[in-house]
Design a protein that fits this description.
Elements: H1 2-12, H2 15-48, H3 57-153
Length: 154
């Protein structure tokens, strides 16, 4: 049963994807594992040699320093990987957000225009009343001044 699922999964993989999987192993995973094993072997060799090649206090202190700093460097490596992932994610997200943000900006501009239009329409009766009121006051002032001038001249 497991053989059929493996065959079916490989059937849907394109040749470039299969080549990528092979390259990923030989160009990324294998060198990292090999270097890690070599580094670990070297550190174990330095610790285990136990005076055969006349290690002094300085050499053991150096090995201890490396062993103390190694976890700190691992945490720094994880932070670097996280930073790289964030940068990659933001660059991928930028292609998605750009058209969407333009649409949102257009929508918000329409909303702003409609709100301004609605505010202008809602204030129009008050402005019309004030304008007509001022016209009526001007008519009364003009009549008042004309009647006064006629009263003085008569």
């Amino acid at each position: 049963m497991a053989m059929k699922s493996v065959i079916r999964d490989n059937y849907f993989e394109s040749p470039p994807l299969q080549a990528h999987k092979k390259q990923r192993f030989w160009q990324i995973i294998f060198p990292v594992v090999l270097f890690s094993l070599l580094l670990l072997t070297g550190l174990v060799f330095l610790i285990v040699r136990d005076g055969r090649f006349s290690p002094g206090v300085e050499e053991i202190g150096g090995v201890a320093t490396v062993l103390v700093i190694l976890p700190i460097l691992l945490v720094a490596l994880l932070q670097l990987a996280l930073l790289i992932a964030i940068i990659y994610g933001v660059s991928r997200l930028k292609t998605v957000i750009s058209p969407t943000s333009a649409k949102i900006l257009q929508f918000m501009e329409k909303v702003r225009w409609n709100i301004r239009k609605g505010a202008d329409i809602s204030v129009q009766p008050i402005l019309g009343y004030n304008q007509n009121s001022e016209k009526a006051k001007q008519v009364f002032r003009s009549l008042n001044t004309r009647l006064r001038k006629k009263g003085i001249n008569s």
